[in-house]
Design goal:
30% of the residues lie in helices and 46% in strands. It is an alpha+beta fold.
């Protein structure tokens, strides 16, 4: 009996020791696992930092290469421009050309036409950009604005229902006057020509589009000008225009201005077809660039 008791006690003691050893081994394994995980995380962070550093260095090198390429291209472009300017005697330039003009019309001898236009005063300004093509020729373009006032020979009234102009009466111009004003955006396309002494002139086209127009019938009473009736944005005016232009210019550019005399002819009719019973009225004029 005594031996049995001693054996059971030994077994229980052995089980406790074994359990303690298992618990201790598990704790050590978990501790080692945590250490390994911490080291792995640290190594991963260091690798990510190193990769980020490498990528930054690569990006820096790429930016430096791109800058070097752009600098080289800019230097080559500058060298070509300087060589062209040295060869042509001039480079890319611009000018501002304000002008005032007067227009007659292709049917000034047809007074009996309902919409006969007596005259057309105009003023405006263009910004021209010149690019040398050869030693003697420049390509010139830009943008500008123009205001034109067409004065009719007869006393007219605008018919909103039909979009036509009707004759009220043939009245003396000093007593009653009908006019059609327009504001246009202009895009010039010219070829300028040079001699050794400087620029001579240019030839080309002015493409225009009217953004607004205003028809008015006015009368002079007791020396005062009265507006009897007026209409905005009528259907009478042809909004498009294509002016064939020839300009003479014996002087060189003065500051940002380039004075000259321009002759022009509008290839498109001033009025739409139905405004004057299908009769086409073209604008022919002269302008003085200041």
């Amino acid at each position: 009996m005594k031996r049995l008791f001693i054996a059971m006690a030994a077994i229980m003691l052995s089980a406790g020791i074994a359990k303690a050893q298992v618990v201790d081994t598990t704790a050590q394994y978990q501790q080692q696992l945590q250490i390994q995980q911490a080291e792995a995380e640290k190594a991963a962070k260091e690798a990510a930092k190193e990769q980020e550093r490498i990528e930054k260095e690569q990006a820096k090198i790429e930016r430096a290469n791109e800058k070097a390429i752009k600098d080289q291209q800019a230097a080559e472009k500058k060298a070509r421009r300087e060589a062209r300017e040295a060869n042509y005697g001039r480079g890319f330039s611009f000018s501002v050309d304000p002008y005032v003009g007067y227009a007659a019309h292709s049917r000034i001898d047809h007074y009996e036409d309902i919409c006969n236009i007596r005259s057309g005063l105009n003023l405006g300004a263009n910004i021209h950009f010149d690019y040398p093509l050869t030693k003697r020729i420049d390509f010139e373009s830009g943008i500008g604005v123009r205001v034109t006032n067409h004065t009719f020979s007869h006393n007219l009234k605008y018919n909103e229902a039909t979009g036509l102009l009707d004759t009220v009466s043939v009245t003396h111009a000093l007593y009653r006057e009908s006019s059609l004003g327009e504001s246009s955006i202009i895009v010039p396309i010219h070829f300028a020509f040079y001699h050794k002494e400087g620029r001579v002139g240019y030839v080309g086209f002015d493409f225009g589009y009217s953004v607004s127009n205003h028809f008015a019938n006015q009368s002079i009473v007791d020396g005062k000008l009265n507006v009897d009736y007026s209409f905005n944005n009528t259907k009478v005016l042809n909004p498009w225009r294509i002016d064939f232009v020839i300009c003479t210019n014996k002087s060189k550019k003065f500051l940002i201005f380039r004075p000259g005399i321009q002759l022009y002819y509008n290839l498109l009719p001033v009025l739409v077809g139905g405004a004057n019973n299908g009769v086409k009225i073209h604008e022919l004029g002269i302008r003085l660039a200041l």
